[in-house]
Write a structure and sequence with these properties.
Strand order of the largest sheet: 1-6-3
Structural class: mainly beta
Number of strands: 6
Protein name: H-type lectin domain-containing protein
InterPro entries: H-type_lectin_dom_sf
Largest sheet: 3 strands, antiparallel
Strand content: 35-45%
Number of domains: 1
Length: 99
């Protein structure tokens, strides 16, 4: 049996683009409304719901557990143009499910 939860968060990036794997100091913690059962494998599907900035916002997810996950916006590189990583507030919807 699968369990599903959904939510949304208003997220912005005031930091430079993060390129160091595992550095989560600029991530935001999202806590699920109800924890998933202990021992569950949980996946999170984030999707940008708004279009407030001219650059494309990338979304990074890290440390998904039964109680929540870490998220940050990380602007996407555009061809040869390197993003500065900063982005205005966007609404990010998410769906979390057990697999």
């Amino acid at each position: 049996m699968s369990f599903i939860q959904t939510g949304k968060i208003d997220l912005r990036s005031d930091n430079a683009i993060e390129t160091t794997g595992g550095n989560t100091s600029t991530f935001t913690r999202v806590t699920f409304p109800t924890p998933f059962p202990a021992g569950s494998d949980v996946v999170v599907f984030p999707l940008t719901q708004t279009f407030n900035g001219p650059e494309t916002p990338g979304i990074r997810i890290h440390e998904v557990t039964t109680t929540g996950f870490l998220i940050r916006m990380n602007e996407v590189y555009a061809g040869a143009t390197k993003s500065d990583g900063k982005h205005t507030t966007e609404t990010i919807g998410w769906l979390a499910s057990t697999v």
